[in-house]
Every structure is written in structure tokens, then in C-alpha cells.
Amino acid sequence: MTHRLGGRRKNVKKGFQFTLMVVGASGTGRTTFVNTLCDSNVLAKKICDNPEEAHNEEGITIKPVSVELDEDGVRISLTIVDTPGFGDNIDNEFCFQEIVGYLERQYDDILAEESRIKRNPRFRDNRVHALLYFISPTGHALREIDIELMRRLSPRVNVIPVVGRADSLIPQELKDFKRRASRMGCVMEDIEHYNIPIYNFPYDVEEDDEDTIEENSELRALLPFSIIGSDEEIVVGGRTVRGRQYPWGAVEVDNPQHSDFARLRSALLSTHLQDLKEITHDFLYENYRTEKLSRTVNGGGEQDDTAVNAEDTANQNVRMKEEQLRKEEEKLRDIELKVQREIQEKRAELLNKEEALRTLETRLAQAQIVDA
Ligand SMILES: Nc1nc2c(ncn2[C@@H]2O[C@H](COP(=O)(O)OP(=O)(O)OP(=O)(O)O)[C@@H](O)[C@H]2O)c(=O)[nH]1
């Protein structure tokens, strides 16, 4: 079920917090996309690599940066988590682990916070709500590394595949690459073939309204989104627009005929922001939590901070229950004593009355004897 921003007046006033991770090999256009999305230089461009150091494998660095955006009058506090260095190494296993580890650490923080007796008012929820996976515009099927990473990340985050630098392919090539199976294979065919549970703008024909179904099926049909990014402005037919100028013509970032940038931007920051957050909390985090806690209960051997916290909470619950039972027993004992006291008082009262009756009867009998 998709939720719109408009229905949440309180949040509209306060604004929304959203965290977006961007992953993709170097040169796929991640940095330019982020800067185009935020309309400012949020991420610094990598300045020309030193050829003497090019063979050094630097590994991946995960860098969150925050930026405040105004989306049609709604404040969005957007955190971008960039992952430069992904796919640059011969062995990418370390990169996979770093990214999955980062996503899981944010869940662990929430789990630990939920288990605390006293909440930390300054606690910040850093869970990642969506991950844009940048695919190189090769025109070929997905690479093994793309399939492997999307498959590993999908259980932990809403993965949305995008084709970066989409203007590197001519429109027909791009169409074939996105959806239409050709000799080369295509992105969506691979995603379906390998059963990768990406975020596919879910809808329920029975439950959702017509507009939601229509909008979500349109967005689903655009997957993977083709992205053109540019931090430059060009003049096209007298209009100043963000785009890229070529000798043969121009491509415009915000023109839906040229790129899916505008549709993706509005899905992320407006129409589907709440849905992505809800799936993260209700489904992805909940699954992680269940896995983690059942591993702890089943003695999976993992005894980290969260496990200890969960154990503390369980012990505390037992102690609270014991205390409650003790109080109830005390209350029952008091009632019992009170009832016993009342019975004794009534019995004494009855005995007194019997005594008085007997005295009366004796006096009556004596009076009758005197009369006779
Ligand atoms: N044609 C075209 N070029 C692009 C596009 N987006 C970025 N580029 C160019 O591609 C090159 C790499 O872009 P970046 O945004 O730095 O790519 P990146 O994925 O962040 O790469 P690293 O910074 O090396 O991790 C730059 O020269 C950009 O100007 C695009 O949509 N179309």
C-alpha cells in the first residue's frame, strides 16, 4: 500500500527524514546524480587519479552526508550514504561485507535502543530506506558482481536498480538493455531470472485504489530507471535547463523523453518516500530483528551487545512480573486477614446476642414461675 505525503499533515509541517544509499562502480555517474538530485555540490568529484597510484586497491569507504531540501514546501532532511570504491577491486567480497555490515549496524542500533528502559531522546535513526544500484550502460546483461550484490542487499534494503549515464546508449539500445530480452540479455530479465527481490513499486489490485495501481505499474515499467545527470545548465529552444550539450544536440535531465530522473526523484522524495520507510521498518527491519533474536535464543553463539541487551530486557521483564505477583499475593493476604477479622467480629456479636437471648429467656421463665 502506498502512502502519500499529503495525508500526513503533522509530518508535512515537521518535515521528513530520508536516507538514500548510492552504490555503483566508479564512473557510473553516482556523484553527478547525487549533486543533480540535491541541486548542489553535496559530493565532491574525484579529481583525476594519479596513474602511479592507480594499482593500489583502496577498498570501499562509506560516507554519509546530510542535506536539507525543500520539496514543494515540504522539508526533507536527506542523508546520502555514498560508497565510493565499490567494484574497483579484484576481490569484491570485502565491499559486499562492508555495505551489508553498514546496513545491519543501523538495524542493530535501533534494536539496542528499543531494548533500553530509558529512551535516549537524542537517538538518531540512521536506517537506509532505499539503495540506488548504478548499473553501467554496457548494453550487455548484468555482470556477476551486480547480480551478487543486489541479491545480498535486497533482504536488508529497498534496492532500486538504475542505469547511470543513460545517454551513452542510443534510445533503442537503452530500451533493449532495460527490458527487452535480446541476444545480449537484459537487466530486468536477469533480475527476474535470479529472483532478486528489488523494490518494484508494489501494489495490491484488491486493496489499492486505481490511481495507486496505475502510478505504481507505470513506475514498475520504467525499471531500471535510466538516469542522466548533469550539474551544468544549457539553453534549449530559449529555455535554460539542466542537461548535456553534444554536437548533435542536447539531452535534458528533467525531460521524461530523455531520462527517468524526474520520475525517480519524485518517487524517492515525494510519492513513495513513506512507502519505502514503512517497508524498511515493518518488513526489512522486522525480519532482521526476528533473525537476530532467534539466533540469540537458539544459542547461535553470537553474543554481541544487542544479544546482551535483549537478554537484559528478558531478565528485567521476569523481575517485573515477579514483583507484580508478590504485590498481588500481599494484597490477597490483606483481604484474607480482613475477612477473618470480620468473621470473628460477627461471631462475637452473635455470641453476645445469644447470651442476651438466653438471659431474656431465663428472666421470662422466672417471671412465669412467680405468676403461677
Ligand atoms: N554522458 C554522461 N556523462 C555523465 C553522466 N553523469 C556523469 N557523467 C560523467 O561521467 C564521469 C564520472 O561521473 P561521476 O559522477 O564522477 O561518477 P562516479 O560514479 O561518482 O565515479 P567516482 O567518483 O569515480 O566514484 C564524469 O566525467 C561525469 O561528468 C551522464 O548522465 N551522462
TrEMBL record:
It comes from the Eukaryota. Residues 14-295 form the Septin-type G domain. GO terms for molecular function: GTP binding. GO terms for cellular component: cell cortex; septin cytoskeleton. Keywords: Coiled coil, GTP-binding, Nucleotide-binding. Pfam families: Septin. Gene3D superfamilies: P-loop containing nucleotide triphosphate hydrolases. Residues 311-370 form a coiled coil. InterPro entries: G_SEPTIN_dom (IPR030379), P-loop_NTPase (IPR027417), Septin (IPR016491). Belongs to the TRAFAC class TrmE-Era-EngA-EngB-Septin-like GTPase superfamily. Septin GTPase family. This is Septin-type G domain-containing protein. It comes from Absidia glauca.
